[in-house]
Write a structure and sequence with these properties.
The chain is an alpha+beta fold. It has five helices and four strands. The longest helix is centred in the N-terminal third of the chain and has 28 residues.
Length: 146
């Protein structure tokens, strides 16, 4: 840059600043206030942050709330003995050992070789000895059951 263009540039900046001085100061003051308010909000939010709430529901209560009209529902949930160890659940077996299988999260029952039955998580498997047993517990046949 030449010396004259540099002087012209400085002169133009001074003219613009002197012409809009009050508006520039107000704008910068507003930006500064917004930044300070934002940072104060962030600091207050960190101070007020609470621990997450954890809701613990016993398994028997949760199972009964899903189907309160089913008297046999408690059989499908693992109970704890007095020593605190879970008892083996009779209705949760290997799907290949059951005549029909269902899920705790569904109302349909399947044959153990059905693709839907193979997708059921082991902890959600409910075994049935026959169709009548499954239907008595509120399950309906899937399309793989004939």
């Amino acid at each position: 840059m030449s010396m004259t263009s540099e002087k012209n540039w400085k002169k133009k900046v001074k003219e613009i600043f002197s012409k809009y001085e009050s508006k520039i100061v107000i704008f910068l003051g507003m930006v500064l206030m917004a930044v300070i308010a934002f940072e104060a909000g962030i600091l207050q939010g960190q101070k007020w942050q609470k621990d997450p709430m954890i809701v613990e529901v016993p398994a028997v209560v949760a199972a009964n709330s899903v189907d309160s009209g089913n008297a046999n529902q408690a059989e499908n949930v693992s109970a704890k003995t007095e020593s605190g160890t879970p008892t083996e659940n009779i209705n949760q077996k290997n799907p290949a050992e059951c005549v029909f299988v269902g899920s705790k999260n569904s109302n349909k029952y399947h044959i153990p070789t059905c693709s839907y039955a193979k997708r059921i998580k082991p902890e959600n498997i409910v075994c049935f000895k026959d169709k009548a047993d499954a239907e008595m517990k509120g399950y309906v046949a899937d399309k793989c059951v004939k």
